[in-house]
Each structure stands twice: as structure tokens, then as C-alpha cells.
Amino acid sequence: MDGQDKKFNHKIVLTALIAVIIGILIAFYYSYAQSRSQMDYLEQEKGLLVRDLTLMKTDVDRLSALNEVNEIELESSKYRVQQLLDSIGRLNFTVEKLRDFKTELRRLEAKNDSLKLKNNFLRYNNMLLADKNEENQKQIEELRSKRNSLAEAEALQRKKVKELNKELKVKTYLELRNAEGSGFRMRSGKPIKTNKASIIEKLRGCVTLIADDTEINSPKALYFQFLSPNMRVIEDNANTITVNGNIYSKRVELLFSGEETTVCDFITIPQGSLEDGNYRLNVFEDQKLLSTTEFELK
After folding, report:
1. What is the pLDDT of residues 17-40, one digit of tens each?
2. In the chain, which ranges are continuous DSSP H helix?
3. Membrane spanning segments where (predicted)?
4. Would you call 248 helix, strand, or coil by DSSP?
5. What is the DSSP code (8-state) at residue 210?
6. 233: which DSSP letter?
């Protein structure tokens, strides 16, 4: 009887031992499966972290190559990103470490976004500066063109002055004498000489051309210039003659016979427009003053 009890007890112990071993194996398998799942998850997250950090490092390198943001910020970001990449490759992952790395990744992503915003702002400023520079270049080109045009005009003007001076040097002029200026009033359509300024309606200029055998039958043009006491050019019927910037009262054309000739001509003025004082008559030929005289009106 005792022998049968011992066998029965041995069977119970053996059965319990087998049950414990099976339980341990089941627990070990479950723990292994859970650890394997967690390891797969951690490896997957590790891969995502490496990818995100690599992309971020590429962005930082690109911004550094463009030299468009602060170099100190770039170097700091590059160092921190490389530090995380080295840590990921060097450490064994845990869930807590994964959380820390994710937090650091989010912080770096925010900093990277800030760098991108600064980069976009700098690009916009660069675009504005480029437009402004282009506008300035156009203005510089316009000024250069105007300067060249002005230089050409000045050169042409100097050439004309030289030609005129040369012409004046070689040209022979009439010899004049007895220049005379006087005033006239009108009576029944006839001019009556007077020196009373308030009633004068015409001024007459006369000059004598000295004989010159070398100028026989030569067309000539004389310019009479009547000047008031305040040296203002007096107009003929409200008109003046302008030649190369010089203003005259009247142009007198004639065919010079070569013999001594007296030339006279009138200018018409409004009655009462003259004041008392000394008046002057200048006689020009081709801008050269040949004779001058003064006359008084009272």
C-alpha cells in the first residue's frame, strides 16, 4: 500500500514539474515574442529617426552651401544633428531612449523650420536687391548714354565754334564810317526828324560804306542794333532778329557796288514807348561789330 502511495506521489510531483517547465517555456516564449516585437518596433523607429536626421542634415548642408543664413546657427545645427546620428548608431535602443530622441528630433525639426523661414526671407531680400540692382544698372546706362550724347553735342559745338572762328579770321569785312542814329515822328505819312522821345514813332540808322574795289557787286547784310538807355534791344514792330544767340533790331540787305555808299533804314516803334536818355546804334556784319554811335532823346 505504501509503495503505491509513493508511486502516486512521484507521478504528482513529475506532473507538477512538467507543468512548471511548460509554464516557464510559455512565459519565455511570450516574453521573447514581446521583446522581438518591441525590438522590431525600435528598429523601425530607429530607421525613421536616421532618415529624418539625414534629411535634416542635407537641408542644413544645403543652406550652408548657399551661405544664406547665420553661420553660427548652421554650425550648431550641423553639430547637433551629427551628434544624434552618432548616438543612434552607437547606442542600444530602449523605449525611454526612443522618447528622448523623438523629443530632440522635434526640437531640431522646429529649429530647421526656423532656418528655412530665415532662408526664404533672405531669398526674398536678395530678389529685391537684385531688382534694385537691375534698376540701378539701367539708370547708370541711361546716364552714360546721356553723357555720351552731351559729349557729342559739346564736341559738335566746339567744332562749329572753331569753324566760325576760322571763317571770321579769313573773312574780310566792310569798312564803315559816319554811323548815325536819330528819331522821327510821322506827319501825313512822312517822317519828320525829332529828338522828343515821347512822340517818336520811328528810329533811323544810317552808315556810310567806304569804297572797296574787291567787293564790286557783292551781296551784303548789315544788322542794326538799337539799344535803349538801359541797354535793351529795341524791337522793330515787336520783332527782333536773332543770329547765333545775338539779337538785332533789323537786318539790312544790299548789293554793294564797290563805291562809297550810304545805307539808311528805319525801325517802327509804338509812339510814347521811348524814354528820355542816351540811345546807341550798333552796326554788325556777320556778328562782327563794325561801327557804333550814340544819340540823345529828350
Report:
1. 676 677 666 666 666 556 666 566
2. 2-66, 71-90, 95-170
3. 12-32
4. strand
5. P
6. B
CA distance 92 to 63: 32
- Model confidence over 47-88: pLDDT tens digits? 666 666 666 666 656 655 555 445 555 555 555 555 555 555
The CA-atom distances, in angstroms, between 88 and each of 98, 110, 147, 218 are 10, 20, 67, 111
Domain 176-297 has CATH 2.60.40.10: yes
> Could you tell me which residues are beta bridge partners of residue 193?
184
Contact 264, 271 (CB under 8 A): no
DSSP lists the bridge partners of residue 247 as: 242
For the chain, the residue count is: 298
The domain spans of the chain are 2-122, 176-297
- Per the DSSP assignment, residues forming a β-bridge with 183 are 194, 203
CA atoms within 13 A on the CB side of 227: 12
